[in-house]
């Protein structure tokens, strides 16, 4: 099974220097340091088809920096931008991700997740005072009560229900025409992965499931920082009762239909998720079993 998208970053995250003021200062003064190029929250793509990097000297001077990691000792940063708008739905982001090598997509995913976390945690959840960046950008500290805040990842289950050689796929109204994907939903407090998989499938499609099997996982940097936990589940029947507030449509597809979608065949029944999405990896895993 090919590695899921947004995984495989080549950077050493260098946790050892995050609390070392002297060591971090040396990185900030390193002439080799590179800063990730962004247009808002979208990645700039170089002429070679990878991420665009520029030097510290090209910064305006007022930007706060987040240390993404080291490569052969060379520090890589991203500037903390206050980006407005929903770039998740921008056609530009999907075009860029379809071009980027997997390692570059993983670096970008980390950068975007951290930026969105910082933008959503500028005030302390305990006392409401303003927070400031610390630990090389891997935390924020309250300027009043000194509570420390650290980036968090929200777990999400994403799954294919299986019944008699078919898998259940669905679509939301915001999807492009013809696009279908695996069902998905956030884990709730007091739930294990298996319980969340069964609950989400039943809530969205009205299908009751039994055994659940873990397949793989993927970080997902859009709309916050999420960990997508991919699973398959054995459905007890194939009758559908859709929650149309959650999904617009759902259908059972055969392996041949899934293969045609993954290949992009002209006569395909539906469009598969893009290769950098874990739903794509999950479909590939299912057809290979």
From TrEMBL:
Every Nudix hydrolase domain range: 151-278
PROSITE patterns linked: NUDIX, NUDIX_BOX
GO cellular component: cytosol
Enzyme Commission numbers on file: 3.6.1.22
Reaction catalysis annotation: a 5'-end NAD(+)-phospho-ribonucleoside in mRNA + H2O = a 5'-end phospho-adenosine-phospho-ribonucleoside in mRNA + beta-nicotinamide D-ribonucleotide + 2 H(+)
InterPro entries: NAD-cap_RNA_hydrolase_NudC, NADH_PPase-like_N, NudC-like_C, NUDIX_hydrolase-like_dom_sf, NUDIX_hydrolase_CS, NUDIX_hydrolase_dom, Znr_NADH_PPase
Any GO MF annotation of the entry: RNA NAD-cap (NMN-forming) hydrolase activity
Enzyme class: hydrolase
Superkingdom to which the source organism belongs: Bacteria
Protein keywords: Hydrolase, Magnesium, Metal-binding, NAD
Signal peptide per UniProt: none
Cofactors (names): Mg(2+); Zn(2+)
A Gene Ontology BP annotation from the UniProt entry: NAD+ catabolic process
Family indicated by similarity: Belongs to the Nudix hydrolase family. NudC subfamily.
Stated name of the protein: NAD(+) diphosphatase
Originating species: Sphingorhabdus wooponensis
């Amino acid at each position: 099974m090919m590695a899921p998208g947004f995984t495989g970053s080549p950077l050493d995250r260098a946790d050892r220097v995050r609390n070392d003021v002297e060591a971090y200062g040396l990185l900030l003064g390193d002439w080799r340091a590179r800063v990730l190029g962004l247009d808002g929250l979208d990645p700039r793509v170089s002429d070679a088809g990878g991420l665009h990097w520029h030097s510290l000297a090209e910064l305006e001077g007022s930007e706060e920096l987040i240390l993404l990691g080291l490569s052969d000792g060379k520090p890589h940063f991203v500037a903390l931008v206050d980006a407005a708008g929903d770039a998740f739905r921008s056609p530009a982001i999907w075009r860029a991700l379809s071009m980027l090598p997997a390692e570059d997509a993983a670096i970008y995913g980390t950068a975007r997740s951290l930026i969105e976390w910082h933008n959503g945690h500028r005030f302390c959840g305990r006392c409401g005072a303003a927070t400031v960046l610390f630990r090389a950008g891997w935390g924020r500290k309250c300027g009043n009560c000194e509570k420390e805040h650290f980036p968090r990842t929200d777990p999400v289950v994403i799954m294919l229900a299986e019944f008699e050689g078919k898998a259940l796929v669905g679509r939301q109204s915001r999807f492009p025409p013809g696009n279908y994907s695996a069902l998905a939903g956030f884990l709730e407090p007091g739930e294990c992965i298996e319980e969340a998989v069964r609950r989400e499938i039943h809530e969205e499609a009205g299908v009751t499931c039994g055994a659940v099997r873990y397949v793989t996982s993927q970080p997902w940097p859009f709309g916050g920082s999420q960990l997508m936990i991919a699973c398959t589940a054995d459905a007890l029947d194939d009758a559908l009762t859709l929650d149309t507030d959650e999904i617009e449509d759902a259908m059972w597809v055969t392996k041949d239909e899934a293969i045609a979608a993954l290949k992009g065949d002209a006569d395909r029944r539906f469009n598969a998720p893009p290769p950098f999405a874990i739903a794509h990896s999950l479909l590939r895993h299912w057809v290979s079993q």
